[in-house]
Amino acid sequence: MGIFNFLKNITEPTEKNMDNKSVPNKSDNIKYLNEIQKEVHQYLKPLGFKKSGRTFNRQTEDGVWQVINFQSGQFPIGENYEIPGFRESFYGKFTVNMGIIINELYKIQIKGKEKSFYQDYDCQIRTRLPQLIWQNDYWWNINSETAKTSEQIIEGLNQKGISWLDMFETREKICKNWGNVEGSSNIAKLDVALIIFQKDRIKGGQLFQEYYENIKSHKGHKEYVKNLANELGIKLKENKAE
Question: Is 0.85 surpassed by the pTM of this model?
Fold first, then answer.
């Protein structure tokens, strides 16, 4: 059975199979995660990814960046931190975050300045590698079996992760796919409207209007969209029934 077949057969990872290894101390955590990341880097480097800390970046179009990030669980503070079924401790474990950032959206929505390197929390489009593999959240154990773990992650990226990123490698693909793939955000259509608005103010404004009209609830969000339109010089038409 291949590694990816093994991954596909784990439909619902459980805490039991996640915790079958003892949790390493902090120095071992760093050592083992470094070893895993080093192997994954060897796979990602020829694909154009650069590394900084626990994060990889690849620019696929001017102003469009793809992000892969290793997130390790934080040390639980306080003896009552862990509440089974409500708040779990992920210390001694890690997961893999993935995302896409479009610079103009970052500047408009976050009011952020262009960066030389982006983190997953900067991204407008986000997922996790386990979600792509199992449609479920999963955190790998950090332990001495680094070769096995890195092989699983590389196989998951090769079979699922990179193809997901490829759907959003250009603005054209983002406008086509964002909002039409599983896991799309509710504000995907707003993101697409903002991208199109940069090159076609009329069409982008129309999409902006359509998005605004279809906000059914969340008065705070509707007010945010209205203020954003004012900033961009988009004149929204109010629904007379409101």
Answer: no
